[in-house]
Amino acid sequence: MSLRYALLGLLADESASGYVLTKKFEGSLQHYAWHAKHSQIYPELSKLASDGLIEVSEEGPRGRRTYAITDSGREVLRGWMFTRPDSGGVRNEFVLRLFLLATLQPTDARTLLTAYLQESENQLDQMAKIFEQAGPEWESEPMSFGHFAAEYGRRSFETLRDWARWAIGEIDRAAEKDGSGTRDASQTR
Amino acid sequence: MSLRYALLGLLADESASGYVLTKKFEGSLQHYAWHAKHSQIYPELSKLASDGLIEVSEEGPRGRRTYAITDSGREVLRGWMFTRPDSGGVRNEFVLRLFLLATLQPTDARTLLTAYLQESENQLDQMAKIFEQAGPEWESEPMSFGHFAAEYGRRSFETLRDWARWAIGEIDRAAEKDGSGTRDASQTR
DNA sequence: TAGCACATGTAATATGTTACATGATTGA
DNA sequence: TCAATCATGTAACATATTACATGTGCTA
């Protein structure tokens, strides 16, 4: 049911075609929030339109239909935003993997954590570029669409990076204590 | 497809019945990683068993079947852990809502952010209790199952709390600048 | 003019939710 | 003994993925 509100929310920010919305779901920011394929998006747009929450605002070449949110749609979106999110529905494969790290041998866990650390650093570099480009715009319009989300994303990656460093430290600390070959084996990687 | 590995991972930590696994998916830590209902869990356990990745290790009263992971299952789990997670599949309703905050009026956004701030502080209090209870155990066995996950959860809530404070500040800063009634209206809440 | 990106649609399959269904054990 | 919790199963429905399908407009 959230796909409906995800689409409504994106259209509340700016009008777009199904194609453009599909691209947004593939793009970097939407990566952390929601995801859908075009085969799901197009039928849902039809439903939203027949419910009067969005409407075709422009027809372009190649059969392109640009949708805009209606007043009624904006109201429905606002209503949903003020309902209590049911936090019971999280499904995050990456976090699942973090949970399951503890089922691995310490050397294996350390290898993976090192990869995650590297990955989070790469992502932070990427984010830095986004902030550099959008910075001036976000300075003048502080509540613009991407800004809040990007800042949340940046902080989340920092958290992941710091946590990975801490976890690696924990593994090394444990290895030092028991004095087995684990530490040496893991540190040669 | 991840449910399979979620179950395998939980069983790698300790043997459990379908009922116990269902409870784990409803529990606090699993809230942030994965979620499933018993109607999905029982059939998947049957499949895992017929694939030889888990086996019934004990039969108890009321038809209880406790499953244990097999060597083969442990291998499959490890293999999955080392595959690259496809980060394209995130679906997190809460983060979606954070994204869509910017579609609201500043006063509405501020109201919601204040609620999120409160919620994150409550969650951190809860986490503090978990750490208090499990602390001694985690001190002696640093890589135990819940520890890594709990620490990640704690840090994530801190990040949310700090981000919410920052976002509220941004809204207030914008309101001060334009000098309209927005600030007063929002600050009376 | 050929290849690529734009642009949409739908059918078959897989995954996940809600609702219906049944029965056993335990503790008040 | 009765209510709650333990314990599992499955059918109907909703949601999401993969694969198949078709055609347009731009640009090199």
Describe this structure in words.
Two copies of one chain form a homodimer. By secondary structure, chain A is mostly helical. Chain A has eight helices and three strands. Helices cover 68% and strands 7% of the residues of chain A. A three-stranded antiparallel beta sheet of chain A has the order 1-3-2. In chain A, strand 2 and strand 3 form a beta hairpin. In chain A, helix 2 packs across helix 3 and helix 6 runs antiparallel to helix 7. The longest helix of chain A has 35 residues. At the A-B interface, helix 1, helix 4, helix 5, helix 6 and helix 7 of A face helix 1, helix 4, helix 5, helix 6 and helix 7 of B. Chain A binds a DNA duplex (28 and 28 nucleotides) through helix 2 and helix 3.
User: Outline of chain A, from the CA principal axes?
Assistant: elongated
Return the structural class of chain A: mainly alpha
The largest sheet of chain A has its strands arranged as: 1-3-2
- Head-to-tail CA distance between termini of chain A: 45 Å
Counting copies of identical and different chains, the oligomeric state is homodimer
Radius of gyration of chain A: 22 Å
User: Into which percentage range does the β-strand content of chain A fall?
Assistant: 5-15%
Largest interface: A-B, 64 and 64 residues
List keywords for this structure.
189 residues; 3 strands; three-stranded antiparallel β-sheet; 8 helices; homodimer; elongated
